[in-house]
């Protein structure tokens, strides 16, 4: 009985922590879009269609379900930790300085790779309905769609944590920074307005995705599977051909939806 009570407490703790991060990220991005930079963001909307309250309610509902799954996986992670199977450490001196410096970028690259391939696999017709259909109910996503997953997708996404923590040594601070980077990036990619500066796709930062990159995925499904970076999509030939054009359209105040664009589009592939 005591064991079950302890498990319930651990579950509740994980749920509260993940809920806090989700609320902070989705609220912050929503406020930036609809209040702080409202006019600027409104001129950079990617789709003409606006998400309805019903869409937002559904996204929050499924995100709560996802937090429940994450909390359950959190119990498994805690048990693995108690058994000494996780390689998380608390003293910076436990590992060399070079590893402390590069572990966050390494973690982000590994997560990006995990995300690209599991995401692409979930688009296989045999898996889509059971794993990924819920997330794609958001044709015009909002920041609240960040965790709008079915149980299958939430499990696949959540299992990354115990897996990576068992495989590579990570300082607790690095892990917490990663969690915040992940949820904020996630909320930004679903913002519906283009945050990134015009020059983004013309320079070295083009290796990183933009809101338009992921928004196009929600509009057209079969392409732009990446999360942080564009390189997997480019290596695998899965990036939408009109990505840069759609990005420029959003930055210039033209919608990327081909049926509802405001003005004629530029035919060149960069914003210049
Ligand atoms: Zn999405
Ligand atoms: Zn997808």
UniProtKB/TrEMBL annotation:
The chain crosses the membrane at residues 20-41, 62-85, 97-117, 163-184. Signal peptide: none annotated. It holds the Pfam family FA_hydroxylase. It is found in: Membrane. One of its GO terms (molecular function) is iron ion binding. InterPro entries: Fatty_acid_hydroxylase (IPR006694), Sterol_Desaturase_Related (IPR050307). The keyword Transmembrane helix applies. One of its GO terms (cellular component) is membrane. It comes from the Bacteria. Residues 106-238 form the Fatty acid hydroxylase domain. GO terms for biological process: lipid biosynthetic process. Keywords: Membrane, Transmembrane, Transmembrane helix. This is Fatty acid hydroxylase domain-containing protein. It comes from Microbulbifer thermotolerans.
């Amino acid at each position: 009985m005591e064991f079950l009570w302890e498990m319930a407490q651990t579950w509740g703790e994980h749920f509260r922590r993940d809920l806090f991060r989700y609320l902070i990220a989705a609220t912050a991005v929503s406020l930036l879009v609809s209040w702080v930079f409202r006019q600027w963001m409104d001129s950079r909307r990617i789709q003409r269609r606006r998400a309805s309250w019903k869409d937002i309610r559904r996204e929050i509902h499924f995100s709560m379900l996802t937090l429940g799954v994450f909390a359950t996986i959190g119990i498994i992670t805690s048990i693995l930790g108690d058994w000494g199977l996780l390689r998380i450490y608390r003293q910076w001196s436990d590992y060399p300085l070079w590893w402390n410096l590069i572990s966050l970028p390494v973690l982000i690259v590994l997560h990006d790779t995990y995300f690209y391939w599991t995401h692409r696999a979930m688009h296989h017709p045999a898996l889509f309905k059971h794993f990924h259909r819920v997330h794609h109910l958001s044709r015009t996503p909002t920041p609240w769609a960040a965790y709008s997953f079915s149980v299958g997708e939430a499990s696949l996404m959540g299992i990354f944590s115990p897996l990576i923590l068992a495989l590579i040594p990570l300082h607790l601070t690095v892990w917490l920074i990663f969690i915040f980077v992940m949820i904020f990036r996630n909320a930004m990619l679903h913002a519906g307005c283009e945050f990134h500066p015009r020059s983004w796709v013309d320079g070295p930062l083009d290796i990183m995705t933009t809101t338009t990159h992921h928004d196009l995925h929600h509009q057209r499904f079969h392409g732009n599977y990446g999360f942080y970076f564009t390189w997997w999509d480019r290596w695998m030939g899965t990036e939408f051909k009109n990505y840069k054009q759609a990005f420029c359209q959003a930055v210039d105040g033209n919608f990327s939806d081909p049926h509802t664009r405001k003005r004629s589009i530029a035919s060149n592939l960069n914003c210049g």
